[in-house]
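Title: Prediction job returns without error message
Component: structure pipeline
Severity: low
Priority: P3
Assignee: unassigned

Description:
Job completed but the reporter wants confirmation the result is attached to the right record. Sequence as submitted:
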Amino acid sequence: TVSRKITNKRSTKENLTISMPCFDKSGNKVGDAVDSISLLEKNKNWEFNATLNSEDVKACKVKDAVISAN
């Protein structure tokens, strides 16, 4: 699980998903840690907990996270 806080400085957004790549100890991608939120209002925080259920995860790259609207 990767936990961080994001502040929305723009207009209200709906149905957001954050995903970030996760890797095993050999550097192979094993999947994406994911979290979603149904509503993120302007100037509000999202304290996300992106999760990938795999025992093989050694690290996830937060800097490569992508936020998309569904």
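Comment from assignee: result matches the submitted record. Strands lie at 2-7, 13-23, 29-40, 45-50, 59-60, 66-69.
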